[in-house]
Each structure stands twice: as structure tokens, then as C-alpha cells.
Amino acid sequence: MGKNAMERILFIDMMLRKEGYPKKKYISEHFEVSTKTIERDIEYMKYRLGAPITYNRVRGGYEYEEIGYFLPSFHVGQDEALALFISHYLGNAWKGTPLASTAEKLWNQFSSMIGEDIIMDVSLFNETVFLVDQSVEINTSIWLNVFVAARSKHKIAITFRTAGYDTSLTRVIHPYRLIHHKNNWYVLSFDESSKKVYTYSISRIEKVVEQKETFSLPPNFDAKDYIDPYSGLATGGESYTVVLLTNKKLVTVLSEHIPSQNSTIENTGDENVLISFTTTQKDELLYWLLQWGSNIEVIEPMWVKEKLYKIGEYFITRYKD
After folding, report:
1. Which CATH class is domain 240-319?
2. The pTM is what?
3. Which contacts of 130-134 are long-range, i.e. CB under 8 A and separated by 24 or more positions?
4. Which CATH number fits domain 140-225: 2.60.40, 2.30.30, 2.60.120, 1.10.357?
């Protein structure tokens, strides 16, 4: 498509969005081209770009059937196109939500505006990259109800399956934020029963009932104050310092899993180093330390060492011949 054709299409899109009900004759005279040329432009927009254009006989001009529709208009290079392509296929956060179909529709619109000499074929991408999808399955209607309540700041009564028990509980919560973490969706909320802030896994919520009452966020609310994105989403705990002894060879790998802004690394004079950092997590920290086994020695705090000792005793007793 030539530069002049793109200019005409952008002009038609602008007129349609302004509900100007443009006529072919008006557009053709504006660009000094034939009405047949404008017809081809409109057909291209409809059948190649998927624009919902229709003719309004009452107004005597064209319009968008879909309110709020816009035609993507941008020029991208190969690197930008690749970034867009990869972000689409890595967008696991939206899978299983009502936004998944919308994201797919937007992708189709955007990709149609990228030149065929730039866009990468899906099959070529799949031949080179293998994506491991570990998204936790969720009920789309539950997700949407929680999302709407969080946006409108309405209290909700949720019925959820408790972790590790075959029972369900009902709580009235104030949904502060929806959080996507490690391929699962959570709702950070204030629980009226306990008067504390908790994170509930949306995949375990069975029922949502919106309440008439609204809520207000705490003063200077910041979701980062309630979670530790490096370790986990447990809330309500005070921060504490963890000190680990490990081999220098593991520093690079370990640094990928701890927050850089509140961690220090100290040489011990031999092949080991001391790594210290602060966190609010407890169970999540223990799970993480167990994955490293004998590659890490906990120096502080003492309660972590005691917990790991008890876990070790359990395994010895459980699996002893």
C-alpha cells in the first residue's frame, strides 16, 4: 500500500471516529482522486484490516458499527514487530480471562498493519521457540466479577476452597488489586472477618456476590507494600533479614531470585560469600531454600534454621529404611 493510500485510510478512520459520516464524493474531492479509489480504500479497511464499516442510509455516509473502534496507525521496524509478536505469544496473564478474546482481536488488527516483509510467520516462531504454559485455570466469570468490583470499589462476598482442606468458607472482602504472579491470578484484599489484608487465589474462588456497600483504599495505598514479588504473595508479615552462605559460583544464579535493591553480597575470604536480603515471606522462603539443598547454608534468622531442621527430621524419619 502506497503512502497516499495510507494517508487516505487514516483520514477516513479519523472521520469515522468523529462520527462525521463521510461520503465517498467528499473524500475523493479532498484527495483529488476518483470515488472508485475511495471505494477500494474502504474495502481494504473492511476486508483486510477488519474495520467494522457500514453505510448509514439515514445519514448518507459511512460509520463504524462498533462504538469506540479505532484503526491502529503506526509504522514499526523489524525489532519492534518482533517485540509485539513475542509479547502477544507470551501474554499468558490474560489467558482464561474475558480479556483474552479482546487481546486476540487487537493482535489481529495490529499485525494487519505491519508489512508482510516484516511480520514473522507463526510456524517459524514455533520452530524456534517453545513456550511452556503453566497458567492456572480460572473461571472467567469469577475473574470478571472480581475485576469489576475492584474497579468500582464495591465489597464482595466470596466463597472459596481452603488450601489443603475439603471445605469452603465465605468472607466479605474489599478487593484492592488483582495480581498476576507466577502464572496465577490473585486478589489482594481486606478481609472484614480478620480485619487483615490477604491474597486470595482466584482459581479457588467458587462464588462472588457483589455487595451494595463500597469501600475506600487505605491512605497512600501501594500494592508493593503488601507483597514481595521475588518470594511470594503472603501478606501481613513484618520484614526480616535473611543471611545465606553459599559458593561464589552460585552468586549470579541466586541474584536472579532476590531483590537487588535491598540485598548485599560480602566475600568471606575463601570460596564462599554471604548474601543478605530482607523479605516478608515465610513459607515461600522455606520452599525456595529447600530447592537449593546443600548449596546454601542459612546463617540467620534462627527460626528459619529451626524450621529447616524439623523438615529434615521429617524426611529422615519418613524415608528411613
Report:
1. alpha beta
2. 0.58
3. 131/89, 131/90, 133/92, 133/95, 133/183, 134/92, 134/183
4. 2.30.30
